[in-house]
């Protein structure tokens, strides 16, 4: 990993490069000012990063102060994230070998964990094993909601998670199940006429749009036998602690899996940024901080090493997570070939502006979850969700999970990273050194959008732009 010639501008240093560009641009100051005015006037019509400043901070004041998730909750979500992400990446690869993916493990975890509260026997055991929820207490679930939905003082960044349980108006929920999902997951319980499938689906779509600030407006489907649905949304609007200057965004090549394309590449010099790499030089990593303490973790595999990291849960967690929460760097070598070194450096980051939309269809998602060990929950003969309903409503027959879908979107630009996800689970009835580091993201890469306490809300892969 060459740390010299960081700007590819001959002997000119990074800061001199910026100064030269600024002097050149000043010659066109009048034209630039007029252009900027036009851009600002257009942007104010509703572009997300222009919503701002004091109004966001004022809105955040109404929230209770954020508290970190318990270690148990953090570990459960994180382990599930890295165990499941390669499987969802493989699902996308089967559909499009060179496609991009944005997945929200946190949203999937919350939707399945809420559903698991009504499971018993082997069904509950399989869900607990995959989700890591076997030993979690109600306070652990509540701590996760407080961590995501809480206030981070002085921050323009926002995060939110919302849960809802939609129940056919002929079904009576068990008191314990209703109490748990309401208190531990802050879930809104909605009674609806599932006989009017289109009407219920429309209401669900509006609920998702509201809780993702209109970033997602899904065309929700309700299956013919569906009588209950769990919907989770996760929304993150992360504003960079040190924004990229749009003035320095240029059109440059991106060497994708399908060939070269021209993309908008943004640039910034970060002082004392923790730069990490493995001892075999197969990847390098930076964490671009948001103003609330969260980050966009960007992992840049060396040429020829993308698939071995993206396709292996252990390697993905090793590359994205090792030494990730060490502000002063660390060195670790748990086993030969698995060494990692990180240290604060001056880092020149060049990375593309990008947007990814992903949709994971129900049949593919269920197949993936089955491959991860959850089988009974989707089998109308084996599933046991008897903890969901009261005794008087057992005439509806055995309950099982009939559908699981997730839709996501992420937008990354000079101002920050904004992402949203919804997951719907439908229950059916059977019945700092001298030289800077160059970190140029001009080839396939992986990323994770994390909360201030390190929980991965989103994990994604970019192969082509």
TrEMBL record:
Residue intervals passing through the bilayer: 29-51
Keywords: Membrane, Transmembrane, Transmembrane helix
GO cellular component, one term: extracellular space
Serpin domain sequence ranges: 85-465
Pfam families listed in its UniProt record: Serpin (PF00079)
GO-annotated molecular function: serine-type endopeptidase inhibitor activity
InterPro entries in UniProt: Serpin_CS, Serpin_dom, Serpin_fam, Serpin_sf, Serpin_sf_1, Serpin_sf_2
Record-stated family: Belongs to the serpin family.
Protein name according to UniProt: Serine proteinase inhibitor
Organism encoding this protein: Bifidobacterium myosotis
């Amino acid at each position: 990993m060459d740390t010299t010639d960081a700007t590819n501008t001959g002997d000119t240093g990074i800061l001199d490069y910026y100064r030269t560009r600024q002097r050149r641009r000043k010659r066109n100051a009048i034209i630039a000012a007029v252009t900027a005015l036009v851009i600002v006037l257009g942007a104010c019509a509703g572009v997300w990063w222009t919503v701002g400043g004091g109004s966001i901070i004022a809105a955040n004041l109404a929230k209770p102060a954020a508290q970190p998730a318990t270690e148990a909750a953090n570990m459960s979500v994180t382990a599930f994230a890295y165990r499941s992400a390669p499987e969802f990446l493989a699902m996308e690869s089967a559909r499009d070998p060179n496609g991009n993916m944005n997945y929200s493990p946190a949203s999937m975890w919350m939707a399945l964990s809420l559903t698991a509260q009504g499971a018993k026997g082997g069904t509950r055991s399989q869900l607990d094993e995959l989700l890591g929820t076997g030993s979690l207490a109600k306070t652990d679930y509540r701590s996760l909601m407080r961590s995501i939905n809480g206030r981070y003082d002085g921050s323009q960044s926002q995060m939110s998670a919302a849960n809802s349980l939609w129940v056919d108006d002929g079904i009576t929920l068990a008191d314990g199940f209703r109490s748990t999902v309401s208190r531990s997951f802050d879930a809104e319980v909605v009674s609806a006429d599932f006989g009017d499938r289109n009407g219920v689906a429309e209401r669900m779509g509006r609920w998702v749009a509201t809780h993702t600030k209109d970033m997602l407006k899904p065309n929700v489907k309700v299956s013919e036998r569906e009588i209950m649905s769990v919907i989770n949304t996760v929304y993150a609007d992360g504003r960079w602690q040190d924004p990229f200057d749009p003035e320095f965004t240029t059109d440059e090549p991106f060497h994708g899996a399908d060939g070269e394309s021209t993309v908008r590449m943004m640039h910034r010099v970060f002082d004392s940024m923790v730069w990490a790499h493995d001892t075999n030089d197969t990847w390098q990593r930076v964490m671009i901080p948001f103003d609330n303490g969260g980050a966009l973790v960007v992992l840049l595999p060396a040429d020829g090493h993308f698939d071995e990291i993206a396709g292996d849960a252990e390697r993905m967690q090793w590359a994205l997570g090792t030494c990730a929460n060490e502000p002063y760097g660390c060195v670790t070598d748990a086993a030969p070939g698995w060494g990692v070194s990180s240290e604060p450096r001056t880092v020149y980051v060049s990375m593309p502006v990008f947007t990814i939309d992903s949709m994971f269809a129900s049949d593919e998602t269920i197949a993936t979850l089955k491959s991860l060990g959850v089988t009974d929950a989707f089998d109308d003969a084996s599933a046991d969700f008897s903890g969901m309903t009261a005794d008087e409503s057992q005439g509806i027959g055995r309950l099982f999970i009939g559908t699981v879908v997730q839709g996501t979107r992420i937008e990354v630009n000079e101002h920050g990273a904004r992402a949203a996800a919804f997951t719907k689970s439908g229950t059916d009835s059977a019945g700092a050194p001298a030289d800077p580091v160059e970190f140029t993201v001009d080839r396939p890469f992986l990323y994770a959008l994390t909360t201030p306490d390190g929980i991965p809300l989103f994990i994604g892969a970019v192969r082509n732009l």
